[in-house]
Structure formats: C-alpha cells, structure tokens
Design brief:
This protein is an alpha/beta fold and 283 residues long. The protein is built from ten helices and nine strands. It binds pantoate (PAF).
C-alpha cells in the first residue's frame, strides 16, 4: 500500500491507475478505523479493481465546540489495518494541504442539511459535502463506499452526486454492530464502561421499534413514543432526536412504510451517539 500525502501526487497516481487498471473504489474515512470501516473496504476490494482509502479528520465538518482536536488519530495502526485488507493507496493529506489559507468555496445541500443531525450540528454537512467533493475530484473514483450508520450523510451525498451530475456511483454498506448491538463508531472509544452499557439503549430501542412494526403497528408516533420512553428510562441518556422520516426529504412521516428511516441521536453523558434503521416491510 502506498501512502500519499499531497494532492498533486494523488492525482498523478490516479491518472496512471485509471488508464492501466480500470475501476477505482474509494473509501473516505476520518481514521480510528474499526470493523465497520473494514467491512466497507472489503466491499470496495470485491467490487472494484483499485482501492483507495483516505484518512482525513476534516476540520470544516466540526463545530467550534466539537471534538476536532480530541478526535482519535493513530495513523500507524490505521495504515497497518488498511494494508492487511489489501488497500492499494492511502491518501492522508494535512489540513493545510486540503484547505489553503483563504479557502472560501463550500457545497451545501439545502433543506436536507438542516434536519436531524444538522439541527444540533449546524455547518456539519456543508463541511462533509465540501470535503467529499474535493476528495472525489482528487481521487476520481468510479464507486465510493459509505456506511449506513451515517444515514443522513449518505442521503445528502447521494443528492449532491445527483444534483451536480458527478461521475461517481455511491454504495451504502450496512451498519456493523458489536455483539451486544452497539453500532460501531470511532466515537465509542470515548465511552467509559458504564456509558458504553448505557449506549446500548439506542440499538435496543430500534429493536423495540422493529418488533412493534413487525406486529403491525404503523403509527409513527406510537412507535416513537415507545422508543423515547425506553431511552428516557436510561439515566445517562439525553435524547437529541428520535424521528421517523422519509429518505427523500427527511420529513417526519405519520405512517411507517417500507423504506421509512427511523433515526436517532442520543447523548450518553457528553458523547453523542447515532443509530438508525430502514424499515423493511414484508410484502
Ligand atoms: O463519515 C466520515 O467519516 C466523514 O464524514 C467523511 C465522509 C470521511 C468526510 O469527512
């Protein structure tokens, strides 16, 4: 695996492999890799000829009071994991390489960026879209791979690709969970043992929703009330949002239908965790 830190070098390598090898699969990450990332890398390896991963903790997607500085970074460990998975190139630019002094251009996906996580993280998706578009331009992938764990991010990026006619296809891979149900996330490393146990309430309440829906309940408010009640009983948990929305406009739905997104963000102590479920109704 070749590690590349400059945009110029990455573009030059892409020019060579595009001609010689064919399809490029791209896995953008912020590092602190876990099994969820690796499952995405494996999908990329299976489906495309050349796999490029990036590790870049993107400053523009963090709010002023968020964890940009504290975000866990361990390049050696991450690079070894990617190498073991057979990744061909790792792009690891510095913030200065990606954002020149005086950077003024941003990408916004209006409306969608202000819902759900966007309400408590203003500017977050603008930062995500901006860096992902820049990375697409540098890596020129045929297929880019993202996780369903960040459901809103996936929906917004799909819209950006469509609205800007970008020449890339996105593949969204399922959430990978710990054996006890906790959705894998780099931020789980912040949790104490007690908080980690409390964090299980997210996946438990989604399972509760699934059971209710499986038994035929279709009223969103009834299902959401049960989820909120369950989370409310966990003393370390504070709900940011628990919603049932459509995946096109991210607007709340009254009736749960096939494809409804049940999405939640909950603070466990100071740590904000997210999780979600796309409802699949038996036909
Ligand atoms: O999902 C992430 O890790 C980040 O938001 C991404 C897509 C790498 C952009 O910085």
């Amino acid at each position: 695996m070749k590690i590349i830190t400059t945009i110029g070098e990455m573009k030059a390598a892409v020019r060579v492999v595009k001609d010689r090898e064919g399809t490029i699969g791209f896995v953008p990450t912020m590092g602190c890799l876990h099994e969820g990332h690796l499952s995405i890398v494996r999908a990329a390896r299976q489906k495309t000829r050349v796999t490029i991963a990036s590790i870049f903790v993107n400053p523009t997607q963090f709010g002023p009071h968020e964890d940009f500085k504290a975000y866990p970074r361990d390049l050696d460990r991450d690079a070894a994991m990617l190498e073991r998975e057979g990744v061909d190139f790792l792009f690891h630019p510095s913030p200065g390489e990606m954002y020149f002094e005086g950077h003024r251009t941003y990408v916004e996906v209006h409306d969608l960026q202000d819902k759900l996580c966007g309400r408590s993280r203003p500017g977050h998706f603008r930062g995500v879209c901006t860096v992902v578009l820049k990375l697409f331009e540098i890596v020129r992938p045929d297929v880019a791979f993202f996780g369903q764990k960040d459901a809103q991010q996936a929906i917004i990026l799909q819209r950006m690709v469509r609205d800007l006619d970008l020449d890339v296809r996105l593949e969204i891979l399922p959430i990978i969970r710990e054996s006890d149900g906790l959705a894998m996330s780099s931020r789980n490393t912040y949790l104490s043992a007690v908080e980690r146990r409390a964090g299980l309430v997210l996946s438990r309440s989604l399972r509760e929703a699934e059971v209710k829906i499986g038994k035929g309940e279709r009223r969103a408010e009834t299902v959401l009330a049960a989820m909120r009640e369950m989370v409310g009983r966990e003393s370390l948990a504070r709900i940011d949002y628990i919603e049932a929305v459509d995946t096109d406009r991210l607007e709340p739905v009254l009736e749960i239908a096939d494809g409804t997104l049940m999405a939640m963000a909950v603070y466990i102590g100071k740590i904000r965790l997210i999780d979600n479920l796309i409802v699949r109704l038996e036909k």
